[in-house]
Design a protein that fits this description.
There is one protein chain. With about 110 residues, the chain is of the alpha+beta class. It is built from four helices and six strands. The strands form two sheets. It has a three-stranded antiparallel beta sheet. A three-stranded antiparallel beta sheet has the order 4-5-6, with no helix packed on it. Helix 1 runs antiparallel to helix 4. The longest helix has 14 residues. The radius of gyration is 13 Å and the shape is globular. The termini are far apart.
Length: about 110
């Protein structure tokens, strides 16, 4: 059964938000339940922080990820809400269930 907040999501907005290759990598990174700042995500993926933060904003606005103040109040921490994570690597947004092949960061070359 999908979480109650899933009924508030707009399916097309979520699918468009995660369809970009970099956003899919971010989803893979956070699917295991990690909570990370945009800077940490950028470093893990070998990307520029500005680019990653733009994509995180798109994902947040669609409801694919959540954000909260980080321990250091100057930063924002991103995560996938626990209600959407049925198990590691599986996300249930209510209208679809995503099985992430790798719930760990891809190898950066």
């Amino acid at each position: 059964m999908p979480p109650p907040e899933a009924s508030l999501l707009k399916p097309l907005a979520v699918l468009q938000a995660i369809a970009h290759p970099l956003r899919w990598q971010i989803l893979q990174l956070l699917a295991s339940g990690k909570v990370m700042t945009g800077t940490e995500i950028a470093a893990a993926l070998g990307k520029y922080a500005d680019t990653v933060n733009k994509d995180l904003r798109v994902m947040r606005d669609a409801g694919a990820v959540a954000c909260a103040p980080a321990a250091d109040q100057r930063y924002v921490a991103y995560s996938i809400p626990a209600a959407y994570r049925k198990e590691i690597g599986q996300l249930d947004y209510g209208f679809c269930v995503l099985r992430i092949a790798s719930a760990s960061p891809p190898v950066v070359k």
